[in-house]
Design brief:
Layout lengths: L5 E2 L1 E4 L17 H14 L3 E4 L1 E2 L6 E2 L2 H14 L3 E4 L9 H11 L3 E5 L3 E2 L15 H9 L4 E2 L3 H14 L2 E6 L2 H12 L7 E7 L9 H15 L3 E7 L4 H10 L3 E4 L6 E3 L2 E2 L3 H14 L3 E2 L2 H8 L4
Parallel strand pairs: 1-16, 2-3, 2-13, 3-6, 6-7, 7-10, 10-11, 11-12, 12-13
Antiparallel strand pairs: 4-5, 8-9, 14-15
The protein binds (5S)-5-amino-3-OXO-hexanoic acid and zinc ion.
Cofactor: Zn(2+)
Pfam families: BKACE
GO molecular function, one term: metal ion binding
């Protein structure tokens, strides 16, 4: 069968949603995060979406001092595209969340396209034992948490990107976020091609039903036309099913322990690389090719 097209795999290595007590495989200190990122790149991820944690207790951290050793090791040992979070943890201020992108001027960074509820507390039904108080507290606190991404916040981060040559992974958790992106683009605040990461299955955003995916796709097509590259992020159990469905509708894919701790239902992923290898196998079975980092740079128009 002829090759159809190249698919960009992003690995989101540790994030800020899951906590160390939920899985012994969640990378926590800088060395673990760097090793996990390099393993994911080796397995086929062209883009590494990076957060860091405080090595003391695994708490999410946007301190550039925690990013520096991760970035140094990743850049010295791989040519993968580094994508630094500006989402940090939904509980942090926007100023805190922007610190590493301002410090390191990466070629790619995440940008969350609207304010929303961000309900993590249902995880308290599944996870009951926590090593650190902050872990339970962060889930509890999400009952009364707004993940703040006002128009002003978005414009501030876009401005940093324009100054530093950083392009964005636009994280869209709902239909309204696509409208927000269209609005920014129409005002000339973003450059194409737009890399739209549509996020499914976060409580507070759109769900993980195939109809949700279809609706996001149709709306993005209508609003953004030829101007965008589409990628799929399914949270938790949605990860692999939505990625394989999306790719057949033209998307790129994101996996990684930030988004799901699982390889199969009831089987924890032992590494980010395992998830990358799994989606890669599925894609190659369907005769898709995996994009290299340089191919991803070219497709996304990154500075390199
Ligand atoms: N944890 C994801 C659902 C960010 O880093 O900007 C969202 C995320 C946010 O990746
Ligand atoms: Zn993230």
């Amino acid at each position: 069968m002829a090759t159809i097209r190249k698919v960009i795999i992003t690995a989101a290595v540790t994030g800020a949603i899951h906590t160390p007590s939920m899985s012994p495989y969640l990378p926590s200190d800088p060395d673990e995060i760097a090793e996990a990122a390099l393993g994911a790149a080796e397995a086929g991820a062209a883009i590494l979406h990076l957060h860091t944690r405080d090595p003391e207790d695994g708490r999410p951290s946007q301190d550039p001092e925690h990013f520096a050793p991760v970035l140094e090791k990743v850049k010295n040992n791989s040519d993968a595209v580094v994508n630094i979070t500006t989402g940090g943890s939904p509980a942090m201020t926007v100023q805190e969340r922007m610190r590493p992108v301002m410090a390191f001027k990466p070629e790619l960074a995440s940008l969350n396209m609207g304010s929303m509820n961000f309900g993590l507390y249902p995880m308290l039904d599944r996870f009951t034992e926590f090593k650190h108080d902050w872990e339970r507290q962060s889930l509890e606190n999400s009952r009364d948490l707004v993940f703040k991404n006002t128009f002003q916040d978005i414009e501030t981060i876009l401005d940093i990107g324009r100054t530093n040559g950083t392009k964005f992974e636009f994280e869209c958790y709902d239909i309204s976020h696509l409208y927000n992106l269209q609005h920014m683009h129409a005002r000339g605040l973003t450059d194409g091609p737009l890399f739209v990461q549509s996020v499914f299955g976060i409580l507070g955003g759109i769900g993980g039903h195939p109809e949700d995916l279809m609706h996001m796709r149709r709306t993005a097509d209508r609003l953004l036309g030829e101007e965008y590259l589409w990628s799929i992020l399914g949270a938790g159990k949605n990860q692999m099913p939505l990625a394989t469905m999306g790719v057949q509708m033209g998307s790129h894919v994101r996996v990684g322990l930030e988004d799901s701790l699982w390889l199969e239902p009831k089987e924890l992923a032992k590494s980010n690389a395992e998830q990358v290898a799994k989606i890669r196998r599925s894609l190659e079975d369907l005769s898709y090719e995996i994009a290299t980092p340089d191919e991803a740079r070219q497709m996304l128009g990154l500075k390199g």
